[in-house]
Amino acid sequence: MEGQTTAGASLTIRCIYMLLALYERPRTVDELLDYLADKQLPKVSKRSLQRNLEDLEGYFGLYRRERHALNSPDTWALAQPEFERLLELEDPVALALVIAQQQLEELGPVSVFAPVTSLFERAREQLAARTSTASKWLERVAVGASSHRLIGPDLNEEQAQRLLEVALKQVAVRLHYHPHQGDPAEVLRATALAVFYRGAVAYLVIRDHENDRLRQLPFSRISEVREVITEAPRVHDFNLAEYRASGALAFKYGEPFWLEAIVFNSVRREIEDAPLGEGQELFELPEQPSCRLLKVKVPYTLNLIQWLLARAAYIKVISPVPFREKLREELKRALANFEGETLQVPKKRNFGDAQES
Prior knowledge:
Layout: H1 7-24, E1 27-28, H2 29-38, H3 46-56, E2 62-64, E3 75-78, H4 80-84, H5 91-107, H6 117-128, H7 137-140, E4 141-144, H8 157-169, E5 172-177, E6 186-198, E7 201-208, E8 214-218, E9 222-227, H9 240-245, E10 257-264, H10 265-271, E11 278-284, E12 291-298, H11 302-310, E13 315-319, H12 321-339
Parallel strand pairs: 4-6
Antiparallel strand pairs: 1-3, 2-3, 5-6, 5-9, 6-7, 7-8, 10-12, 10-13, 11-12
């Protein structure tokens, strides 16, 4: 390597490796010499290396630790926060990494991404310490999986960017919202609070000023957005993490409940190692060796109901009885539509409190 680089380039490479070694942990000059030898760098004298360190002292967070004895060797160390400023990512890059991590966590398996976990965490910590627009994503934007991944709508990029900006600033806005394609616009006055991605579909979370209700509006249904500077925003105590934990972003029908059901082996294989919910237990059924009795606490969400309906031929729900009856009613409605000539739309929502009939 010595013959392939100039003296200046060799010195630069040596200094970079020294700083990286000290970033791992403090070291003496002798330990640094061993480290450089392991990296197959050109040999250098102990005195030269000491001079290099003295020249760099005070830069990039490099300093000498206080000696515990007069004859003890110098131990060199790095003030990590100061050195890490050299490794900082641009905020948009850090933001891309944070969002990528959220998306990857939904896709799994998480273990595959272990080698880049430290990079994801570095990006998150950097944004958490900033007040830039990009850093506000940590508080005001969440990513979650959809039960069936829809193809993302064709959005106007400028419009989508404006919607994102008002959510990051949490300002009062006037929106033109269309419940369905071709519907006339409903003019809403609201406070933009956050953005939520359900798969590839973006939603603007707002507080409607007419009734103070929180709503989620698809970006694709908003044709116009304007910031209203004459009206105060109504953020109140909105917190995206708490809002998400409440189940509001998952089409929540009620509080979590204990589900008891008999499941066939095909379902058992799905949930044995990846539980359907908290406190899951599977019990043998001597009279049905290819089945198991399932007891588990589940969230009462649309995703759960869709999951159960998709496996209805392999699951027998036992309790709670009111929920079992609601599931039966949903299946009856579906069967009626298959057997009838026209689509029969229910006049009343079927699912509600799992414990109530």
